[in-house]
Write a structure and sequence with these properties.
Length: 289
Protein backbone atom coordinates (compact mmCIF):
# COMPACT_ATOMS: atom_id res chain seq x y z
CA UNK A 1 0.00 0.00 0.00
CA UNK A 2 1.25 3.46 -0.87
CA UNK A 3 0.90 5.90 2.06
CA UNK A 4 -1.05 9.10 1.63
CA UNK A 5 -0.11 12.31 3.37
CA UNK A 6 -2.25 15.32 4.16
CA UNK A 7 -0.89 18.10 1.94
CA UNK A 8 -3.20 20.81 3.29
CA UNK A 9 -1.00 23.68 4.53
CA UNK A 10 2.10 21.81 3.35
CA UNK A 11 5.30 23.76 4.00
CA UNK A 12 8.17 21.26 4.03
CA UNK A 13 9.04 17.61 3.39
CA UNK A 14 9.01 15.57 6.60
CA UNK A 15 11.26 12.60 7.36
CA UNK A 16 8.27 10.26 6.82
CA UNK A 17 7.50 11.82 3.44
CA UNK A 18 11.08 11.54 2.30
CA UNK A 19 11.29 7.89 3.43
CA UNK A 20 8.08 7.04 1.56
CA UNK A 21 9.36 8.77 -1.57
CA UNK A 22 12.69 6.95 -1.46
CA UNK A 23 11.11 3.56 -0.73
CA UNK A 24 8.15 3.69 -3.14
CA UNK A 25 9.37 6.18 -5.74
CA UNK A 26 6.30 8.34 -5.19
CA UNK A 27 4.87 10.74 -2.64
CA UNK A 28 1.08 11.24 -2.45
CA UNK A 29 -0.13 14.53 -0.96
CA UNK A 30 -3.88 14.95 -0.67
CA UNK A 31 -5.53 18.39 -0.44
CA UNK A 32 -2.35 20.23 -1.45
CA UNK A 33 -4.12 22.37 -4.05
CA UNK A 34 -7.36 24.10 -2.97
CA UNK A 35 -10.48 23.14 -4.92
CA UNK A 36 -10.99 26.75 -6.02
CA UNK A 37 -7.49 26.82 -7.51
CA UNK A 38 -8.23 23.65 -9.50
CA UNK A 39 -11.38 25.31 -10.86
CA UNK A 40 -9.45 28.48 -11.71
CA UNK A 41 -6.92 26.50 -13.77
CA UNK A 42 -9.66 24.56 -15.55
CA UNK A 43 -11.53 27.77 -16.40
CA UNK A 44 -8.33 29.36 -17.62
CA UNK A 45 -7.65 26.42 -19.91
CA UNK A 46 -11.21 26.59 -21.26
CA UNK A 47 -10.63 30.25 -22.14
CA UNK A 48 -7.26 29.42 -23.68
CA UNK A 49 -8.84 26.80 -25.91
CA UNK A 50 -11.58 29.18 -27.00
CA UNK A 51 -8.99 31.67 -28.23
CA UNK A 52 -7.23 29.00 -30.27
CA UNK A 53 -7.97 28.59 -33.97
CA UNK A 54 -7.52 24.91 -34.83
CA UNK A 55 -7.66 25.56 -38.57
CA UNK A 56 -4.27 27.28 -38.29
CA UNK A 57 -2.68 23.97 -37.45
CA UNK A 58 -5.16 21.47 -38.82
CA UNK A 59 -3.10 20.53 -41.86
CA UNK A 60 -0.35 19.36 -39.55
CA UNK A 61 -2.65 16.74 -38.12
CA UNK A 62 -4.24 15.52 -41.31
CA UNK A 63 -3.71 11.78 -41.54
CA UNK A 64 -2.18 12.33 -44.95
CA UNK A 65 0.18 15.09 -43.81
CA UNK A 66 3.87 14.48 -43.81
CA UNK A 67 5.13 13.21 -40.49
CA UNK A 68 7.94 15.75 -40.38
CA UNK A 69 5.44 18.59 -40.05
CA UNK A 70 4.01 16.89 -36.96
CA UNK A 71 7.52 16.26 -35.66
CA UNK A 72 8.43 19.92 -36.12
CA UNK A 73 5.25 21.07 -34.33
CA UNK A 74 6.05 18.76 -31.41
CA UNK A 75 9.81 19.35 -31.29
CA UNK A 76 9.38 23.11 -31.17
CA UNK A 77 6.77 22.98 -28.38
CA UNK A 78 9.33 23.08 -25.55
CA UNK A 79 9.32 26.86 -25.39
CA UNK A 80 5.69 27.69 -26.17
CA UNK A 81 2.09 26.49 -25.87
CA UNK A 82 0.96 23.90 -28.39
CA UNK A 83 -2.15 21.75 -28.71
CA UNK A 84 -2.05 18.00 -29.24
CA UNK A 85 -5.08 15.99 -30.21
CA UNK A 86 -6.63 12.64 -29.49
CA UNK A 87 -6.10 10.09 -32.22
CA UNK A 88 -8.96 10.22 -34.73
CA UNK A 89 -9.75 13.85 -33.87
CA UNK A 90 -9.18 14.83 -37.51
CA UNK A 91 -10.52 13.47 -40.77
CA UNK A 92 -8.32 12.85 -43.80
CA UNK A 93 -8.93 16.43 -44.93
CA UNK A 94 -7.46 17.81 -41.72
CA UNK A 95 -10.83 19.03 -40.45
CA UNK A 96 -11.71 18.32 -36.81
CA UNK A 97 -14.43 15.71 -36.51
CA UNK A 98 -15.17 16.58 -32.86
CA UNK A 99 -15.67 19.88 -31.01
CA UNK A 100 -12.25 21.29 -30.17
CA UNK A 101 -12.77 21.10 -26.40
CA UNK A 102 -13.42 17.36 -26.74
CA UNK A 103 -10.70 16.65 -29.29
CA UNK A 104 -7.65 17.83 -27.36
CA UNK A 105 -5.43 15.27 -25.65
CA UNK A 106 -3.02 17.72 -24.06
CA UNK A 107 -1.50 21.19 -24.17
CA UNK A 108 2.24 21.73 -23.64
CA UNK A 109 5.05 22.27 -22.93
CA UNK A 110 6.11 25.67 -21.55
CA UNK A 111 3.06 27.18 -19.86
CA UNK A 112 5.12 27.49 -16.68
CA UNK A 113 7.15 30.18 -18.50
CA UNK A 114 4.73 31.64 -21.05
CA UNK A 115 1.30 31.69 -19.39
CA UNK A 116 1.00 33.94 -16.31
CA UNK A 117 -1.68 31.79 -14.63
CA UNK A 118 0.23 28.53 -15.01
CA UNK A 119 3.50 30.29 -14.29
CA UNK A 120 2.27 31.49 -10.88
CA UNK A 121 0.79 28.08 -10.12
CA UNK A 122 3.93 26.18 -11.15
CA UNK A 123 6.24 28.44 -9.17
CA UNK A 124 4.31 28.15 -5.88
CA UNK A 125 6.37 27.77 -2.74
CA UNK A 126 4.97 24.29 -1.96
CA UNK A 127 6.41 22.88 -5.20
CA UNK A 128 9.76 24.57 -4.55
CA UNK A 129 9.83 23.08 -1.03
CA UNK A 130 9.05 19.63 -2.46
CA UNK A 131 11.79 19.86 -5.08
CA UNK A 132 14.38 20.96 -2.53
CA UNK A 133 13.13 18.55 0.13
CA UNK A 134 13.29 15.60 -2.27
CA UNK A 135 16.89 16.25 -3.19
CA UNK A 136 17.20 18.72 -6.07
CA UNK A 137 20.02 21.16 -5.31
CA UNK A 138 19.17 23.64 -8.07
CA UNK A 139 15.64 22.87 -9.32
CA UNK A 140 14.78 24.11 -12.82
CA UNK A 141 11.30 23.97 -14.31
CA UNK A 142 11.61 22.12 -17.60
CA UNK A 143 8.18 21.07 -18.84
CA UNK A 144 4.48 21.58 -18.14
CA UNK A 145 1.42 19.89 -19.60
CA UNK A 146 -2.32 20.13 -19.24
CA UNK A 147 -3.80 16.68 -19.81
CA UNK A 148 -7.52 16.25 -20.54
CA UNK A 149 -8.14 12.47 -20.59
CA UNK A 150 -11.40 13.13 -22.39
CA UNK A 151 -14.59 11.23 -21.52
CA UNK A 152 -15.04 8.06 -23.64
CA UNK A 153 -12.03 8.72 -25.91
CA UNK A 154 -9.16 9.55 -23.52
CA UNK A 155 -6.49 7.10 -24.59
CA UNK A 156 -4.43 4.61 -22.59
CA UNK A 157 -0.88 5.62 -21.63
CA UNK A 158 1.30 2.53 -21.43
CA UNK A 159 3.80 1.91 -18.64
CA UNK A 160 6.76 4.28 -18.91
CA UNK A 161 9.31 6.29 -16.94
CA UNK A 162 9.41 10.06 -17.39
CA UNK A 163 13.23 10.02 -17.47
CA UNK A 164 12.85 8.39 -20.90
CA UNK A 165 11.58 11.77 -22.11
CA UNK A 166 13.45 14.18 -19.80
CA UNK A 167 16.93 12.88 -19.21
CA UNK A 168 19.71 14.38 -17.15
CA UNK A 169 23.03 12.84 -16.18
CA UNK A 170 22.72 11.77 -13.44
CA UNK A 171 18.93 11.31 -13.47
CA UNK A 172 17.20 14.16 -11.61
CA UNK A 173 13.76 14.40 -13.22
CA UNK A 174 10.99 15.04 -10.70
CA UNK A 175 7.36 15.08 -11.79
CA UNK A 176 4.40 16.81 -10.13
CA UNK A 177 1.04 15.39 -11.19
CA UNK A 178 -1.84 17.57 -10.05
CA UNK A 179 -5.42 16.26 -10.08
CA UNK A 180 -7.61 19.15 -11.24
CA UNK A 181 -10.61 16.80 -11.13
CA UNK A 182 -11.17 13.57 -9.20
CA UNK A 183 -9.04 10.87 -10.87
CA UNK A 184 -10.49 7.42 -10.18
CA UNK A 185 -10.02 3.92 -11.58
CA UNK A 186 -13.18 4.57 -13.58
CA UNK A 187 -11.91 7.64 -15.45
CA UNK A 188 -8.28 6.62 -15.91
CA UNK A 189 -6.27 7.53 -12.80
CA UNK A 190 -2.56 6.81 -12.74
CA UNK A 191 -1.23 3.42 -11.69
CA UNK A 192 2.33 2.90 -10.52
CA UNK A 193 4.76 0.20 -9.50
CA UNK A 194 5.97 1.02 -5.96
CA UNK A 195 9.67 0.30 -5.62
CA UNK A 196 10.03 -0.02 -9.41
CA UNK A 197 12.37 2.99 -9.60
CA UNK A 198 15.61 1.10 -8.94
CA UNK A 199 18.75 1.52 -11.06
CA UNK A 200 20.05 4.79 -12.39
CA UNK A 201 18.82 4.79 -15.99
CA UNK A 202 15.36 4.46 -17.55
CA UNK A 203 14.64 1.38 -19.65
CA UNK A 204 14.58 3.46 -22.82
CA UNK A 205 15.49 6.89 -24.14
CA UNK A 206 13.35 9.04 -26.44
CA UNK A 207 15.77 11.29 -28.30
CA UNK A 208 16.12 13.63 -31.23
CA UNK A 209 17.58 12.29 -34.42
CA UNK A 210 17.93 14.85 -37.19
CA UNK A 211 14.52 16.47 -37.67
CA UNK A 212 12.71 13.59 -35.98
CA UNK A 213 12.91 11.37 -32.94
CA UNK A 214 13.78 7.81 -32.11
CA UNK A 215 13.56 5.49 -29.11
CA UNK A 216 16.64 3.66 -27.86
CA UNK A 217 16.04 0.56 -25.74
CA UNK A 218 18.52 0.14 -22.91
CA UNK A 219 16.80 -2.69 -21.00
CA UNK A 220 14.18 -4.86 -22.66
CA UNK A 221 13.02 -6.69 -19.53
CA UNK A 222 9.31 -5.98 -19.03
CA UNK A 223 7.97 -3.80 -16.23
CA UNK A 224 6.65 -5.82 -13.29
CA UNK A 225 3.12 -4.74 -14.04
CA UNK A 226 1.64 -7.41 -11.78
CA UNK A 227 2.91 -5.24 -8.91
CA UNK A 228 1.14 -2.11 -10.08
CA UNK A 229 -1.24 -0.29 -7.74
CA UNK A 230 -3.90 2.31 -8.54
CA UNK A 231 -3.17 5.90 -7.55
CA UNK A 232 -6.60 7.46 -7.20
CA UNK A 233 -6.23 11.20 -6.77
CA UNK A 234 -9.12 13.30 -5.50
CA UNK A 235 -9.24 16.84 -6.88
CA UNK A 236 -6.36 18.83 -5.37
CA UNK A 237 -4.12 15.82 -4.74
CA UNK A 238 -0.52 16.08 -5.96
CA UNK A 239 1.49 12.98 -6.86
CA UNK A 240 5.23 13.59 -6.81
CA UNK A 241 7.42 10.97 -8.42
CA UNK A 242 10.92 10.61 -9.76
CA UNK A 243 11.90 10.06 -13.38
CA UNK A 244 12.45 6.33 -12.88
CA UNK A 245 9.06 5.56 -11.28
CA UNK A 246 7.11 3.30 -13.68
CA UNK A 247 3.54 4.49 -14.17
CA UNK A 248 0.67 4.23 -16.62
CA UNK A 249 -3.02 5.01 -17.01
CA UNK A 250 -5.93 3.20 -18.61
CA UNK A 251 -8.20 4.62 -21.27
CA UNK A 252 -11.08 6.71 -19.99
CA UNK A 253 -14.29 4.96 -21.05
CA UNK A 254 -16.41 6.83 -18.50
CA UNK A 255 -18.43 9.94 -19.15
CA UNK A 256 -16.28 11.99 -16.73
CA UNK A 257 -13.19 13.90 -17.83
CA UNK A 258 -9.99 13.61 -15.83
CA UNK A 259 -8.09 16.87 -16.14
CA UNK A 260 -4.56 17.01 -14.72
CA UNK A 261 -1.68 19.45 -14.79
CA UNK A 262 1.86 18.12 -14.77
CA UNK A 263 5.15 19.86 -14.14
CA UNK A 264 8.61 18.35 -14.57
CA UNK A 265 11.59 19.77 -12.76
CA UNK A 266 15.26 18.85 -13.20
CA UNK A 267 18.41 19.68 -11.30
CA UNK A 268 20.42 22.48 -12.89
CA UNK A 269 23.53 20.87 -11.40
CA UNK A 270 23.05 17.82 -13.68
CA UNK A 271 24.01 17.61 -17.36
CA UNK A 272 21.11 18.05 -19.83
CA UNK A 273 22.09 16.18 -23.03
CA UNK A 274 21.57 17.88 -26.39
CA UNK A 275 19.63 14.90 -27.76
CA UNK A 276 16.74 15.36 -25.31
CA UNK A 277 13.68 16.06 -27.47
CA UNK A 278 12.90 19.19 -25.42
CA UNK A 279 15.43 21.89 -26.24
CA UNK A 280 15.17 25.57 -25.40
CA UNK A 281 16.46 28.48 -27.48
CA UNK A 282 19.60 30.04 -25.98
CA UNK A 283 17.65 33.08 -24.77
CA UNK A 284 15.09 30.98 -22.89
CA UNK A 285 16.91 28.68 -20.49
CA UNK A 286 15.13 26.58 -17.86
CA UNK A 287 14.48 28.85 -14.90
CA UNK A 288 14.34 28.04 -11.20
CA UNK A 289 11.32 28.54 -8.96
FE1 LIG B 1 4.52 10.01 -17.31
Amino acid sequence: MIPRFNGRNFTSVTKEMREAFERDGILVLDHLVPTEKCDELKDHMTNTIQSFDPSEHASIFSTTAQTHAQDAYFLSSGHTTRFFYEEEAFGDDGILVKPLELAINKVGHAMHDTDPVFETFSRQSAFAALAHGLGLADPRLAQSMYIFKQPHIGGEVVCHQDATFIRTEPNSCLGFWVALEDATEENGCLWGIPGGHSGDMPKSLFVREGDGTKTITLDDTPYEEEKRLPLPAPKGTVLVFGGLFPHMSSANRSDKSRHAFTLHVIDGAAHYPADNWLQRPADMPFRSF
